[in-house]
């Protein structure tokens, strides 16, 4: 009898977890749709709960606030990056370019419309600023390796290497080249990887095709 009870409890726990994840995904989908259609500042937690078919306290319990919902939506694209490690600093810079391309391609699909409708939302700007700080600090380990490996990077110093890498891999350059000038994402990634290599190693390897 004990085995049966244990199995039953385990099954129920798995079932509850699956249901909670499904509810969470439904709320995020509803929030994304509402934010994209009406704007972050206009939409309320009650609106999102109604769209998702749940009670408002459920939304608060899972996300606490609209800022929490925004963080979860942006985090879904921000951390959808390729997690590869390598000892080759040249490959590391190419991977850095690939990570930027993956993040911004996903943003364009997942939250581009939301950002357009809510461009002046203080709440959205605050959440995005927080993720920019995270992005900056995540790159510090790569910057340290570059300073250790290349005289050109060492001459710049760690602070400037961090600043330059953060600037080149930022959303504005992606927006200008891919969204405004119509570059293919592959071309952006190739250019960015080789530009980073040139900036920190002084090697000129890129030629336009």
Q: How do the helices and strands line up, and which of them pair or pack?
A:
Layout: H1 2-38, H2 45-52, H3 56-63, H4 66-78, H5 89-110, H6 112-117, H7 122-138, H8 140-149, H9 151-156, H10 158-168, H11 171-180, H12 185-201
Helix pairs in contact: 1-2, 2-3, 4-5, 4-7, 5-12, 8-10
Plain-language structure description:
- The chain folds into 2 domains: 2-64, Arc Repressor Mutant, subunit A, CATH 1.10.10; 76-201.
- Helix content is 79%, strand content 0%.
- The chain contains 12 helices and no strands.
- The chain starts with a helix and ends in an 8-residue tail after the last helix.
- Residues 204-209 have low confidence and may be disordered.
Key terms:
209 residues; mainly alpha; 2 domains; 0% strand; disordered C terminus
Task: Describe the structure in brief.
The protein has 209 residues and is mostly helical.
Q: Would you tell me the overall average pLDDT?
A: 84
Taken together, the total number of domains comes to: 2
Helix content: over 70%
Distance between the termini: 72 Å
Shape: globular
Strand content: under 5%
Low-confidence stretches: 204-209
The main sheet comes to: none
- The Rg value, from CA coordinates, equals 21 Å
Please give the oligomerization state of what you see: single chain
Write down the secondary-structure element order.
HHHHHHHHHHHH
Per DSSP, the total helix count is 12
Q: What's the total count of β strands?
A: 0
Q: Specify the structural class.
A: mainly alpha
